[in-house]
Amino acid sequence: MRLLVINPNISDSVTALIQAEALRSASPGTQISMQTAAFGVAYIETRFEALIGAYAAAQLAAEHHPGHDAVIVAAFGDPGLAALKEVMPVPVLGMTESALATACLLGHRFSIVAISQRIQAWYREVVDSHGLSGRLASIHALDRPLASIGNVQGEHADALLALCERAVAEDGAEVIVLAGAPLAGLARSLAGRLSVPVVDGVSSAVRHAETLVALRPGRASAGSFAPPPLKPNRGLPEAIERLLAGQAGP
Amino acid sequence: MRLLVINPNISDSVTALIQAEALRSASPGTQISMQTAAFGVAYIETRFEALIGAYAAAQLAAEHHPGHDAVIVAAFGDPGLAALKEVMPVPVLGMTESALATACLLGHRFSIVAISQRIQAWYREVVDSHGLSGRLASIHALDRPLASIGNVQGEHADALLALCERAVAEDGAEVIVLAGAPLAGLARSLAGRLSVPVVDGVSSAVRHAETLVALRPGRASAGSFAPPPLKPNRGLPEAIERLLAGQAGP
Amino acid sequence: MRLLVINPNISDSVTALIQAEALRSASPGTQISMQTAAFGVAYIETRFEALIGAYAAAQLAAEHHPGHDAVIVAAFGDPGLAALKEVMPVPVLGMTESALATACLLGHRFSIVAISQRIQAWYREVVDSHGLSGRLASIHALDRPLASIGNVQGEHADALLALCERAVAEDGAEVIVLAGAPLAGLARSLAGRLSVPVVDGVSSAVRHAETLVALRPGRASAGSFAPPPLKPNRGLPEAIERLLAGQAGP
Amino acid sequence: MRLLVINPNISDSVTALIQAEALRSASPGTQISMQTAAFGVAYIETRFEALIGAYAAAQLAAEHHPGHDAVIVAAFGDPGLAALKEVMPVPVLGMTESALATACLLGHRFSIVAISQRIQAWYREVVDSHGLSGRLASIHALDRPLASIGNVQGEHADALLALCERAVAEDGAEVIVLAGAPLAGLARSLAGRLSVPVVDGVSSAVRHAETLVALRPGRASAGSFAPPPLKPNRGLPEAIERLLAGQAGP
Amino acid sequence: MRLLVINPNISDSVTALIQAEALRSASPGTQISMQTAAFGVAYIETRFEALIGAYAAAQLAAEHHPGHDAVIVAAFGDPGLAALKEVMPVPVLGMTESALATACLLGHRFSIVAISQRIQAWYREVVDSHGLSGRLASIHALDRPLASIGNVQGEHADALLALCERAVAEDGAEVIVLAGAPLAGLARSLAGRLSVPVVDGVSSAVRHAETLVALRPGRASAGSFAPPPLKPNRGLPEAIERLLAGQAGP
Amino acid sequence: MRLLVINPNISDSVTALIQAEALRSASPGTQISMQTAAFGVAYIETRFEALIGAYAAAQLAAEHHPGHDAVIVAAFGDPGLAALKEVMPVPVLGMTESALATACLLGHRFSIVAISQRIQAWYREVVDSHGLSGRLASIHALDRPLASIGNVQGEHADALLALCERAVAEDGAEVIVLAGAPLAGLARSLAGRLSVPVVDGVSSAVRHAETLVALRPGRASAGSFAPPPLKPNRGLPEAIERLLAGQAGP
Confidence band (pLDDT; 50, 70, 90) for A163? Predict the structure, then answer.
């Protein structure tokens, strides 16, 4: 099985973090291909940055998906995810939806721990778009500058652990979701140090991607996740134009 | 007052419809500048097409907003709207949010009448993202091919009227929202033929834009609608790069 | 254009505040007529006081609306508003619904700042009746006695500003709504002192009234906002009796 | 125990129906006093008619409550109910809230069967104001003119039964609520003819009033159901003025 | 009238508390029969303990209901309640649903005060299962070990009162619900010491049971509260087997 | 990896269906142990039957989990699931929660197709308990008697397919969930015959169980999914008593 994992940001250091956790998480026989955004910002905290990341992810997915069994959008917040589900001929998964799926299997109410204050509103809206606000106990985030986006875990380990513990003690979190690709792998190192289960988006996405491929649920040829109907277009990146032309939505 | 109105699609015929209704709706002294997407599809029905339209709208807004008092994204579904609200130094309004604001002032439950079956799921999600699902009585849509996106009103007038009447009679709609830029101006011609108020997105957006400019509520320098914090970026269209650099989010 | 603005309370000092802000906000050519409740209480904080204010507003609207293009109920909480929308032949707007409409165009989550502890539960229920609880970040209110209802702004300016700042910092408010007719105009004087947009109910209502008049969306002759069906009545104020008789609901 | 039952409408024939069912339902030792609105309409179908009925009910309650242990507002839709709960020194109950309380003890999802098409939107909003929309399976209503408000049950018995059966068969109603004072007592005569439990508002209100009196839960002296704070007022009916003066809210 | 009151726990001391409050609350002529679980735990705080209590309650109800007019499951959280409503030929009520019904008649938002930290999540889920989360102001609970489950009131009276006051002052609770059979009767002794009404589950259940018996709403023979359809079974306690066989669901 | 799969019903034919699909779905190296309820009913359609199945499942889980890495409760509706998550030292998954997790990764709104009319209300409540009602497009069910619970797929294949197609065409279902252990494996045989993805509970549960085991998220030692606190108990099945004693909840 081959999974295409897309980092919609331009930070190679984050791509490396994602790749490392993806490789640790994948089943034997699963191969991981990484792609990093050709354009965009260092990391996504806002809706506008997500808009850019969504377009970058779409181009990478359109260009590189051939030969893969599933695609993973590896930024928390899942830029472009629902859009890509429409056009890709294989399953597309996001870090947030995957982490939430795992969290919902482990407890009823989860908290999200994130890397910046600014990022919280966007995460809240993403959880809400999944209809899961009723299960969100809280969101907590670091409140200090990030010296290096590739080393957030190293620099802020204690603060992140404290935020997790606060979510359990004060908000009744039954599961912790560590949010943001820069935290990829942190769940693994917190193992045994928290009093509730802790979920990582990258490993969840890899495993759920494997599951969707294995279950062969079929692809939508009707409804809102069928490929878009053919219609005139202009000026699109070649891979996207090809993708739209190659599909035949109703 | 100068309003920049962006059609995130590539159809000049739809731009013309939008412009005509914007001009009919604007207060004396309000000037309308139109921009049509340089790339994209003929009209937006799906999440993926909205992803493209969002990026096209962002580029146009970044490039053309100087000299304007507000920006309007003139496609129902509001591609890129929340993202643009963060970065633009002037108010940004969408057709959907504007039409819903008007509808909520006229009654408690509204129905949406739209131009294609496929478009309905996306509209439903947009209404839900505004937290207004509880006020949505129904969505109805044409179920036939559109020969010309610039002449939907002409070809399908009776069918559209019938959908409006059905929403009132069967779903308890207290207000009708005519959705989609291709229907711009239709509300005006249905005046007096429906038993409930009818709302148009373009005219609502123009008037609400004038209101936001007049009220001078101030711009966000904190919270999730402040400009994105400065961070490294690469490969962005020059106008977007300039916009991000020119703002100084916290 | 002529707007009838009704203060459902008996305080002339508050009527003066409302009038001043209405005049500042109105477009050129818009005329404002003020009416103050003939009976009732000094200001409305509770559901029972709103019941009285609703009846007072209904009498004033029934008697004075001829010659006006729209009616504004100028107390936050909108006493009698939905009822008046049924019977009036012109648009009727409230301060709360108008402020919320403006706030929703400026951000996703808003906080309300109010003049007394007691008033909060009622406001919460009004926001909920609009289906907008999901966008309400918080309500904060003064916790001290009001020496003069006509001078709340003067006496408590610093405390009100502190409540606004707290809503932004602690609750993630992306917009502030200043609630209560006694605060009419305060948004204007806070301009530039808050880090998020701030909304005033009176100016919002005046501008949205102008918009509804301009858009001519049509009046309901069916559904729950059509005039009440004719039926026997007894003992009503003459203006209300005349109003009910003059309408012909289905 | 003495219960004051207020008909907020002017129809003596409906008062008689209410009284008859109240007497049939009351426990031994409970006395029923009836009051009919001195002004208002024949029956309430709309928000504006409810506004009138609320004020009429408030005057009757203020004047006649002395000597009673509880007050019942006997119109479905509960005009003025929450307001009266604030000022009355004894429990105040409404037909709707009482019927819903009974229905919720008998099943999870209930349907409402009502006497006119127009009345449905108002009922829906009342159910929503109680936060119980999630348990409302449907509302069905007669769609024919009512020759006599005092004889709806006699004239439309079969149609009403058919609406009940439809709610069970099509909407999954687990309980039926017969709505509207003109249907008082109908539940009793449908006994054994429906396949799910059926609830009447008057009998529910009488029994729940007895329960609240017996349980002595205490009265609010803080929070939003405490009596309104003292403040200047003018022009109020003497009984209401006396009531406001006699209470001492915080 | 005879009411069967089931304590789904094994604690005789709690049964005694329940019985005492049931006897104080019952109308003249109502007889109370008590049953204590033959197996289970000392008191229920968790979902797993509720699973056990539900099965114990089912056996007691199946065996002892003959000769009774209604059954009460006397543990807060209502273990097995909805299940028992299906199979019992008489009304079945729970402490939670009864307390919430009373609370909803007394105010809009209620808080729950409970005996242990652990118990809170389960209560929250029960309130949510009734669709009443929107009216739940907060849950507060003792945070100290319980030396004797039969004497929680005696040992922790001051702490419980403080929790009630905190819910009113900080969370806007308009009604307090004292949760848990070990607190049966406490509401009575707090009378006059709280600034909002206070509700007890046992007395509410007894009174509402009397009401349901008196109203004779009829029993479900269709829908999801009809008796389960006959089907093969094996190994069930004799009373449950007899109960299933004796009913004839559709 | 060893998974314990529990059929909470007494039907060996259904156990065989579950086992066959579990074996087809499991990854190489995963072993499946089956257990069938020692007592209970032929299949679960109602809340009362689920109460019995929950207790049967709890006994089987308590007795047989040693030596397994995860436990699956293999009845749609997940009887006893949340309770078992508290006490089991390994992950516990249900068919419904697993199917919903898969469905949510494949589309936004899903429909459930089930084997009997009666079963629908229970399923609706289960979806609601997960907070996913907003994503439930509809539930459809067979409306005919089931001659053999082990051969529902064989006898009713066409009718089941028709219900799936109706959910897509009429309700906008973007994913179909085939509900009920008697339908285990049907998704596999419908592959390619439906226009949207189709999800099976057994295969979803097996794959998600493997994922949770692989991810090692940690077990709750605090919060509401920690083991129940130790307290006196009496008369419990020995395996359950041992389980409660062996855990040490806070």
Answer: very high
Record the pTM.
0.96
D-chain residues within 8 Å CB-CB of B110?
none
* Cross-chain CB nearest to A108 (options E120, E125, E133): E125
Predicted local confidence at residue F250, as pLDDT: 59
Q: Output the tens digit of pLDDT for each of chain D's 250 residues.
A: 999 999 999 999 999 999 999 999 999 999 999 999 999 999 999 999 999 999 999 999 999 999 999 999 999 999 999 999 999 999 999 999 999 999 999 999 999 999 999 999 999 999 999 999 999 999 999 998 888 888 999 899 999 999 999 999 999 999 999 999 999 999 998 988 999 999 999 999 999 999 999 999 999 999 999 999 999 999 999 999 999 998 655 6
Q: What is the pLDDT of residues F11-54, one digit of tens each?
A: 999 999 999 999 999 999 999 999 999 999 999 999 999 999 99
Query: Which residues share a beta bridge with B178?
Result: B113, B200
Residue E14 in contact with residue E43, Cβ under 8 Å? Answer: yes
Query: What CA–CA distance (Å, rounded) separates C98 from C95?
Result: 5
Rounded Cα gap, residues F229 and E95, in angstroms:
23
Task: Out of 3.30.470.20, 3.30.1360.70, 1.10.1040.10, 3.40.50.12500, select the CATH number for domain B102-200.
Answer: 3.40.50.12500
Q: Could you tell me if F33 and F101 are in contact, meaning their C-beta atoms sit under 8 angstroms apart? A: no
Q: With the CA atoms of D211, D215, D218 and D219 taken in that order, what torsion angle do they form, in degrees rounded to the nearest 10?
A: 0
Higher pLDDT, A189 or D85: D85
Interface predicted TM-score of the whole assembly (ipTM), two decimals:
0.96
Residues of A in contact with C174 (CB under 8 A): 121
∠ CA C24-C30-C33, nearest 5°, is 80
In this complex, do C174 and A121 lie within 8 Å of one another by their Cβ atoms?
A: yes
- At the top level of CATH, which class does the domain D2-96+205-246 belong to? alpha beta
Check C128 against E134: CB less than 8 A apart: yes
Closest alpha carbon within chain A to E119: A172
Which residues of chain D make contact with B134, given a CB cutoff of 8 A?
128, 133
Fold held by D106-200? Rossmann fold (3.40.50)
Alpha-carbon distance of D120 to E139, in angstroms, equals 35
Over range B47-71, report the average pLDDT. 98
CA distance, residue B125 to nearest chain F CA (Å)? 9
| Cα angle, residue C222 at apex, residues C221 and C225 outer, rounded to 5° | 85
Asked whether the beta carbons of residue A131 and residue F131 sit closer than 8 angstroms, the reply is yes
The closest of A109, F206, F243, F208 to E51, measured between CA atoms, is F243
The pLDDT, as a whole number, for residue C145 is 87
In chain B, CATH 3.40.50.12500 sits at 2-96+205-246, 102-200
3-state secondary structure of D149: helix
Dihedral, D100, D102, D103, D108 alpha carbons, nearest 10:
100
* Of the candidates B86, B112, B94, the residue with the CA atom closest to the CA atom of residue B53: B94
Helices then strands, counting H and E runs in chain B, come out as 9, 10
Q: Do D120 and B174 touch (CB under 8 A)?
A: no
CATH 3.40.50.12500 fits A2-94+205-246, yes or no: yes
For chain F, where do the domains classified as CATH 3.40.50.12500 start and end? 2-94+205-246, 97-200
Q: Return the pLDDT at F191.
A: 81
D and A touch per CB criterion (3+ pairs under 8 A): no
Please state which CATH number belongs to domain C97-201: 3.40.50.12500
C-alpha distance from C178 to closest chain B C-alpha (Å): 11
Residue D112 has a pLDDT of: 98
Task: Report whether pLDDT(A249) > 70.
Answer: no
**Pairing, β E110-114 against β A110-114:** unpaired
Question: Which class would CATH give F97-200?
Answer: alpha beta
